[in-house]
Amino acid sequence: MPKKSISAQLLLLVAVFIIATCGLVYELVAGTLASYVLGDSITQFSTIIGVYLFSMGVGSWLSKYIDDNLLRWFIRIELLVGLVGGFSPAILFLTFRWHPPSVSFSMHSFL
Hints:
Layout: H1 3-38, H2 41-62, H3 70-98
Helix pairs in contact: 1-2, 1-3
């Protein structure tokens, strides 16, 4: 196998590892933020994990429609995910500040 091909594969592997790590961090931050604001961490983390898995399934289904310029699409999508994931905590805090939930989902409201 040519050296250039091995280095390209290694670069892709490192990029995928970094992207997967960022996805896990985004998931944990969103779950933590939702549990701080809404309470009931089990429900919030379960919801966040479900939404992430559903989104991954939708992305996998949509990937069959991408036929050309795979690298360009990969870079575009990952930059978009980075922007959305990076700004999501601030957007969620502002959203909860301007539009507080009308019903508390915490167990304390049942006690």
